[in-house]
UniProtKB/TrEMBL annotation:
NCBIfam families in the record: accA, AccA_sub, PRK05724.1
GO MF assignments: acetyl-CoA carboxylase activity; ATP binding; carboxyl- or carbamoyltransferase activity
The species this protein was found in: Rhizobium freirei PRF 81
Keyword ATP-binding applies: yes
EC nos: 2.1.3.15
Pathways per UniProt: Lipid metabolism; malonyl-CoA biosynthesis; malonyl-CoA from acetyl-CoA: step 1/1
One matching Pfam family: ACCA
Protein name, UniProt field: Acetyl-coenzyme A carboxylase carboxyl transferase subunit alpha
Amino acid sequence: MHNYLDFEKPISDLEGKIHELKKLASEDESIDTSDEVTRLEIRVREATADIYSKLNAWQKTQVARHPQRPHFVDYANALLTEFTPLAGDRKFSEDAAIQAGFARFRGQPVAIIGQEKGNDTKSRLKHNFGSARPEGYRKAIRIMEMADRFQLPVITLVDTAGAYPGVGAEERGQAEAIARSTEISLALKVPIVSVIIGEGGSGGAIAIATGNRVYMLEHSIYSVISPEGAASILWRDSTRAKEAATNMKITADDLKSLGVIDGIIPEPLGGAHRDPQTVIAATGDMIANALSELSSRSGEQLRSDRRQKFLNIGRNL
């Protein structure tokens, strides 16, 4: 069963009726509900198309955070072969919020880095809900430096509400680790392709999203702070998160028009959680096309283009 968002009540009601009819037919074979089920399924598709064609920024935020949305591990399992995860930052400890290592992507050796939120209580606690500590970013730095040394493209999958803000993380240099990860990203002489697959929150996202090509899934979000955080700072009222989301321009369409990202990956009707295989395949195609396009460029050109890309953000508005 789906976890329905609050604005999906019309869909929930219709699919609830379909479930009841199918259950009734299974319990009594003399009852034929197929015509009514077909009619309701058409209405579900129409209602879903209507609702998702006019989502506002706050509703897209809810979709980006959907608990059944595919996460890093789902993309890695579907798109990678021979994935060898590496652990630890060689300074303090391992941080499971960031997953990283080396693999083959459609036969090509690559480095892969991404945030993993987890999909149940146990795994969410293990991965700290995708909010990395300093050692997670230092692990990412280690992987990127190795990728540069061995001339391997870097793929990053971004999905975090933000870096972990706890006291221990701050004591161990959270800001410095994020800044260093961003700095290393800008310095690499290999292609970097980044995809925001859910939430792209604050420095926790940009630390691994400083790529030659940056893409977003259609219903993902990307911002300097969460809507709740912005509302708390601006109005001292986190309940105004919906208003903040609208004003912050955090959706894929907004950011594409502002030149912050390079492209948008369409999601299946009803969001990525409705058809993970389709959206993962589309993401793989987008990454493959980007790597193919960037493969002919020299290391110096890749580094120069990447730096210029981020320097240009906001200049032509």
